[in-house]
Specification:
The complex is a heterodimer. Chain A is built from twelve helices and twelve strands. In chain A, helix 5 (about 120-130) crosses helix 6 (about 140-150), helix 5 (about 120-130) packs parallel to helix 7 and helix 6 crosses helix 7 (about 165-180). Chain A is α/β, with parallel strands linked by helices. Chain B is an alpha/beta fold. Chain B has helices at about 45-50, 80-85, 105-115, 120-135, 140-145, 155-165, 185-200, 210-215, 235-240, 245-255, and strands spanning about 1-15, 15-30, 35, 60-70, 70, 90, 170-175, 205-210, 220-225, 230-235, 300-305, 305-310. In chain B, strands 6-7-8-3-9-10-12-11 form an eight-stranded mixed beta sheet, sandwiched between helices. A four-stranded antiparallel beta sheet of chain B has the order 2-1-4-5. Chains A and B meet through helix 8, helix 9 and helix 11 of A and helix 6, helix 7, helix 8, helix 9 and helix 10 of B.
Chain lengths: ~325, ~325
């Protein structure tokens, strides 16, 4: 088997505030409770093969963005390992680590807050290659032109500022900036969520074209199942910090195993012009500060049994290439 | 019940007077759901605000009429409008914090709303508020009346906003993208509540959205707006299966799932023009694959079977 481009191996991420001196003293004396910590990721394992597109879906607060950031090395993981082309990111030597992080770039949701409003487009796109010594002097300008053109922006407007562009164009500038350091993995965190439908289609087409031209690999994070279905080869579903199901796209959509995935799929609005009834799934995603015991989904699950309240279901293969975490699979 | 004829809304800007809504006409009957679909800047929200009488300077309704049960809302005085607003016509906004006061308990706000239009005791108002919260599916409504808006989650807050809109059992509800910021599961719950209410109470509903698939399962008729005009308006089945306007066809082709998995979507080239720099003639002309010299004139509204259309080149045939 070839080494996957990105391997997330048993990664957990806990956000805890460090208590101050007085607080620690109070806790020790039994006068205060220790502050609760948030388990944003709980033992997540996922791999993204070279040239593949893995979609990561879940409701807001399920930890999908945290996973994206940890995978890029923007956040350190609490436990587990992040392997890029088989090499561990957090223990790599500084030079190797920089190389790995340059190879992984992120595209954010809101293009207006991820672009510096006081920099011209040519500097936004050209800064990173210049700083990292990938291009010098004249070459920087050529590089900027090349990547703007590749992202669908006319290079003649490169002296403008971000506010002079529309939302879709700004997202293209963000893509050009990411591509300028020649990454082979893009982590897209809700990259098309803020765009109008017609612009969203343009950007999705751009992502597919770039994969073909540059051989990119994507980790595509989105709450929009129809977008993920369209673009991804494999889909991973997260719920409250845990991966609940992972399989090839057609397998997930045609043969979902986990009750949460099934419920999620039923709620996608479809272009069918008939009155339909909504509301298969009750309640909301619980707070990660105080997650339910056992299987996190049991309070909303129509099939919950006693075992679900007590025992955490393990993610295991239910069919070749199809993993699901539910006691019903036994 | 609601009949809008040739509505025009202008905004005064430093670049001069800009038309944001042009010649918009549609009507909504009791118990009917109209979906108003368009991309950002298409004038769909301004149309909603106009019905509520919420257009303030520099904006101005410059033409047309808004007939509600035969009465023109444009000529109404502010006190008379206030009697209708929240009582017979209510609006739900995208961001529920626009409706809710963050420093008042939900109960206080609801009781205030009830007593603004109805002479009744605080206790009566409280029980009415509690019933409204129960109706939209908020668990233990009695206790929740004493909670502040920040103590609710996003989906619950939107339910509270809907409950407030329902307090007086209005004849018409205008919903402006109320589920856009919510997760699919919560969106489905809200759609479920609204769908039930329209059927039970026979309210008219205008659902404003940029997402065609949300209104597909909800609306009876759909109006597609582009650059301030309704370019296509007809029964939901007709619009989704055999749209005639190139823009509607492009919009449906842009939805992921329209093309096969991993294929390129049939995108619309270019971007929506800004209201200040509207192209001459048909505003969709620069992005349209079917445009000809004829399109340098503004296309008039013509009837095509059940559909009202603004296009010189209607595209026949069903979408694949």
């Amino acid at each position: 088997m070839t080494t996957p481009r990105l391997e997330i191996s048993n990664v957990s991420k806990v956000f805890a505030s460090r208590p101050g001196l007085i607080e620690r003293a109070f806790v020790k004396a039994g006068l205060a409770k220790p502050k609760a910590s948030v388990h944003a990721l709980d033992d997540v394992s996922l791999s993204v093969g070279k040239g593949g597109i893995v979609g990561l879906v879940g409701e807001s607060g399920c930890g999908k963005s945290t996973l994206g950031r940890v995978a890029c090395g923007l956040l350190p993981q609490t436990r587990g390992a992040i392997l890029h082309n088989g090499a561990e990111l957090s223990t790599a030597a500084p030079a190797a680590r920089r190389e790995m992080q340059l190879g992984t770039q992120m595209i954010f949701q809101d293009p207006s807050s991820s672009l510096n409003p006081r920099m011209r487009v040519r500097d936004i796109v050209g800064e990173a290659p210049r700083v990292h010594g990938m291009a010098k002097g004249r070459e920087v300008a050529d590089l900027v032109d090349h990547y703007l053109e590749l992202s669908g922006i006319d290079p003649s407007v490169k002296n403008r500022f971000p506010h002079q562009f529309s939302g879709g164009q700004r997202q293209r500038i963000g893509i050009a900036r990411a591509l300028a350091v020649k990454p082979d993995l893009l982590v897209c965190d809700e990259s098309v969520a803020a765009l109008d439908v017609s612009i969203q289609a343009q950007i999705l087409n751009l992502f597919l074209d770039l994969r073909e031209q540059l051989g990119l690999t994507y980790l595509f994070i989105s709450h929009d199942l129809s977008v993920v279905r369209h673009i991804s080869d494999r889909v991973a579903v997260m719920y409250l910090g845990r991966l609940v199901e992972e399989a090839a796209t057609s397998e997930i959509f045609e043969n979902p195993q986990h009750p949460y995935t099934r419920a999620l799929l039923e709620e996608i609005p479809e272009l069918v012009p008939k009155r339909r009834s909504y509301g298969a799934i009750k309640g909301e995603i619980p707070s990660p500060l105080n997650p339910p015991s056992g299987c996190h989904f049991h309070p909303r699950c129509p099939f919950a049994m006693k075992r679900c309240r007590e025992e955490v279901p393990q993610l295991r293969a239910v069919a070749p290439g199809h993993r699901s975490a539910c006691h019903l699979n036994d | 019940m609601l009949d809008i004829r040739n509505l025009c809304v202008d905004f005064e800007t430093t670049d001069g007077r800009i038309g944001v809504v042009h010649d918009v006409s549609f009507s909504v009957a009791r118990g009917a759901v109209m979906g108003l679909v368009g991309e950002s800047g298409s004038g769909k929200s301004v149309t909603g605000f106009s019905i509520m009488g919420l257009i303030d300077p520099p904006g101005e309704i410059s033409g047309g009429s808004i007939l509600f049960d035969g009465q023109d809302l444009r000529g109404l005085s502010e006190p008379a409008m206030r009697k209708l607003r929240g009582n017979r016509i209510a609006m739900i906004f995208q961001d529920p914090m626009m409706t809710l006061n963050p420093v008042l308990k939900v109960g206080t706000q609801m009781i205030e709303t009830v007593r603004a239009h109805l002479k009744c005791t605080v206790d009566e108002a409280r029980s009415r508020s509690r019933d409204a919260l129960g109706l939209v599916g908020i668990p233990s409504p009695e206790e929740r009346l004493a909670a502040y808006p920040h103590q609710f989650s996003g989906g619950m807050r939107q339910r509270v906003a809907i409950a407030i809109a329902l307090l007086h059992e209005p004849d018409l509800i205008i919903a402006d993208e109320p589920t856009t910021a919510l997760d699919v599961t919560i969106q489905a719950q809200i759609l479920n509540v609204v769908q039930g209410l329209v059927e039970q109470k026979g309210m008219g509903l205008i659902w404003i959205t940029h997402d065609l698939s949300v209104v597909a399962g909800l609306a009876d008729t759909i109006g597609v707006m582009y650059a301030g005009r309704i370019v296509e308006h007809g029964p939901v089945g007709q619009i989704l299966r055999e749209p005639l306007h190139p823009y509607t066809r492009g919009l449906i082709g842009s939805l992921p799932g329209a093309a096969g998995h991993g294929r390129r979507l049939r995108q619309i080239p270019g971007t929506t023009p800004s209201a200040a720099r509207m192209p001459k003639g048909c505003p969709f002309r620069p992005r349209c694959y079917a445009a000809t010299d004829l399109c340098e004139e503004l296309p008039p509204e013509v009837r095509h079977n059940d559909t009202l259309l603004r296009c010189f080149h209607p595209q026949p045939g069903a979408l694949q």
